[in-house]
Amino acid sequence: MELPQLFYQICDHSFFGVFLTLFCYLIGLWIYERTRFALLHPVLIAVILIGGILIYFHIPLESYDKGGDLITLFLSPVTAVLAYEIYRQRKTLASYFLPVIVGCAVGSGVSLFSVTLFCRLFGLSEEITASILAKSVTTPIAVEITGMIGGIPSLTVVVVVLTGIMGAVLSPVLIKLFHIKSKVAAGVAIGTCSHAIGTSKAIELGQTQGAMSGISIGISGIVTVAFVMIMAALL
Amino acid sequence: MKIMKQLMILFLVCLISYGISLVLPFAFPASIISMLLMLLLMLLRIIRPESIRETAELLLANMAFFFIPSGVQIIAYYHVIRGDVLQLLLVCLLSLVITFAVTAFTVLGVIRMMGKSE
User: Which of A218, A53, A170 is nearest to B68 (CA)?
Assistant: First the structure.
């Protein structure tokens, strides 16, 4: 649908992206809180709504990004405040330091290996494989890795967010399915396979899970970079 | 006033971390440095938890929100994955379930080996 020129001029201001993101996130929260249906994750609803609106009204992504980039800017302070959550759980972290480190290392290795394996199995191209290899780690690290091995960084961002949403949606189910009673194990597993978006769910599950998930984002990210560097050097 | 001061502290830590990432001999994301630096500053009691509490709790409660604009970028790259959407979703799902299970059981195994219980 085409709208008058004035509309597109208005949309080209940063106010538009910021407003639209807040608006769609609140709709997402509203729907999620009323249905409590895990698949209706607020971020998933918001992304679909925003994407749909931009496409339907032919609003350029560049116009949305003027405001969207301002929100993305906050990813750094948001990651920094994870330290607050970890600090509050420092005693738990100190007594489970070894299991957390080993869990993150093994999990990151399995993630890289399983992505490579399934991409081959499903016949995905080298370019797509390289773009989604680091999908389990936090966006800035994943993009860095994709750059190192010749993938498409923007595709990485999308798949990282997708994996995060999957982790947030599925982690309560997986905890039940595998009978994970340990809060530490649940937290580390969430953080290792679905970074910060998964962690937002871990925080809902409890303080211990949230903190362990938070620290696992950092450790898994570091370990994954190391693994990829070693793999790249060997191949 | 309180929130403004807390935001200032947060962005200062991010700024210093960005500086650190520039001088590091290898590529490493500034946001992870800022998390580690913040933790270090809190453990050293240079930043007290009270100095960032309200802002930290606000940001943590809405953490997923800040990823929305990154997710919206899909509309620009949809053509790259158009033929492979189902396979891509399957790879993500299978890899997620396997990684989750292996990680959780590894942590449990190590806790047991150490003879600890929660």
Answer: A53
